[in-house]
Design a protein that fits this description.
The structure is a homodimer. The first copy, chain A, folds into 2 domains: about 160 residues, Rossmann fold; about 100 residues, UDP-galactose 4-epimerase, domain 1 (Alpha-Beta Complex), CATH 3.90.25. In chain A, the strands form 4 sheets. The first copy, chain A, has a 7-stranded parallel β-sheet, sandwiched between helices. In chain A, strands 7-10 form a two-stranded parallel sheet. Chain A is built from 10 helices and 13 strands. The longest helix of chain A has 22 residues. In chain A, strand 1, helix 1 and strand 2 form a beta-alpha-beta unit. Chain A is an alpha/beta fold. At the A-B interface, helix 4 and helix 5 of A face helix 4 and helix 5 of B. Chains A, B: This is NAD-dependent epimerase/dehydratase domain-containing protein.
Chain lengths: ~300, ~300
């Protein structure tokens, strides 16, 4: 039997690489698109392919060559702070690249189901945006919805909350773990500056998220939007306390006055998890076990 | 006294060139941005400048060199039918170009007020899009609103309905007039194919629209959206009848079965003209006089 073939964009990224590993372990043939090959990942059933998603011909060639049964679009930029400085780059990479991907699928007439990864930080377009990153993710989801509606492509949308887990990430939990690992080695670590410890977020293990992505690709309803999270909101203070239970050094954080609000809602607008739960999905990694794995990753990083 | 300086994007286009003429006649120094200079427009107080709005550096250089008191952003693609074939191009030209323009203003710290020209064909983003052109204009307006909200640029938005008037245009009224002028010269003119004569539209003379644009730039409220139209909806049948009263040849049209709905709402969602009327604006060109001027343009075109 021929393996089902999945194309994963952003395969060099945090979520993308976790997704590659997950789908490989579950018997898929995985083609990972990366902007630039960094080293040979010599794994059975894995191919890595260079592709610049902001170049429409590069994307077209990739889809035409691969003809995937499934497409998981994880590529994109996701640093809220950076998006304030380089909003045009975020529009190009998060919006235009998605347009190129879906246009390539349309032109090649590829039939495989497509899952576009949006974000829980999208804003309601009838209101006002709170930050550029969320704006571009809102656009990306509207593009996905539009290509499904107007051009009848088999697209679904996942909107995960804050993804955490081992591996290179610019997220809050990774940042703290990296500092702890340095402090444990007696390295001088600049403390992490935190604006507001009462900020609440829903932290979900990336490995739980990619399991949800497979379920959606296999059993999801075309055109549907799937918010994904644990449903449990934690303050940043709670994250610090949890890490403190995993180490003997003081967690190196420094609380500063709240000068620059990045525009992240503080636990407002809780997600409706009905759709993903209807597919039988529930998160599997307890929060402390995710943090422990992240810490292990940085302790071993050397 | 130094003239106020206005930068007009899309100066080679239908609306853009009418705007250039209007602002020149009203004592402004006008800098017209065009993709490619076609011929020398040797007019006092007029400068033409090549600029590729899809190239962020080209736009940045233009804003830095011109430092306009006002910016009128008319550039963009507006052919609904073409947008079904080349949606990626419409995203690039209508959305990304607007991002580059507003980013250039932000980086140069140019203080001049900005009027972004949206469209009455935008869709409500909480619903479903009906065609790609409208989608990209919805994105463009969301970008304008966002750069005003997030980066505090002095932006306003105009949403004109179908603009008509003398000059090269791909609009319905121009198409008919061109065929009439050919028929009057005994040239064999393929009749215009019309899907549905009962379709209703609000036709506004472009010269009335650019007068509204000046009013908004001078007296409008930052962040406000200004729908612009006559408030009077006409069927395409009414347009044909009106043209018939201006010529002795039969208006060359052919009614075909409605095969391909372009996704233009048939007079649904009438515009709220309160904001523009509050500035004291009312349309000045009667419909028949606009049609007559369009016909004269094509009769003289040779």
């Amino acid at each position: 039997m021929v393996n089902r073939k999945i194309l994963i964009t952003g395969a060099g990224g945090f979520t993308g690489w976790h997704a590659c590993q997950y789908f490989l372990n579950n018997g898929y043939h995985v083609v990972g698109l990366v902007r630039k090959k960094r080293f040979n990942k010599d794994l059975p059933n894995y191919e890595e392919r260079e592709c610049d998603l902001t170049d429409e011909f590069s994307v077209y060639d990739a889809i035409k060559a691969v003809k995937p049964d499934y497409i998981l679009h994880t590529a994109g930029k996701n640093d809220v702070k950076e998006s304030w400085e380089k909003p045009a780059e975020y529009v190009t990479v998060n919006v235009l690249a998605t347009v190129h991907l879906l246009e390539a699928v349309r032109k090649v007439k590829n039939n495989g189901k497509i899952l576009v990864i949006g974000s829980a930080l999208e804003f309601d377009p009838s209101g006002l945006p709170n930050q550029p990153y969320g704006l571009t993710k809102t656009f990306q989801s509207l593009v996905a919805k539009s290509w499904e509606t107007l051009f009848h492509l088999p697209i679904m949308i996942a909107k995960p909350t804050n993804l955490i887990g081992p591996g290179p990430s610019n997220g809050f939990c990774s940042l703290i773990a990296e500092k702890i690992a340095l402090a444990e080695k007696d390295c001088l670590a600049e403390p992490v500056l935190i604006d507001d410890l009462t900020q609440e977020r829903d932290f979900l293990d990336v490995r739980d998220a990619v399991r949800a992505y497979e379920l959606i690709l296999l059993k999801g309803k075309i055109g549907e939007v799937y918010p994904i999270g644990t449903g449990c909101y934690r303050t940043l203070m709670n994250v610090i306390d949890s890490y403190q239970s995993l180490t003997t050094v003081p967690v190196p954080v420094h609380i500063k006055a709240n000068k620059h609000d990045l525009g992240i809602d503080k636990g407002k607008g809780r997600m409706d998890l009905t759709n993903i739960r209807a597919l039988g999905w529930h998160p599997g990694y307890p929060f402390l076990s995710s943090l422990s794995d992240i810490l292990t990753y940085y302790r071993n990083k050397g």
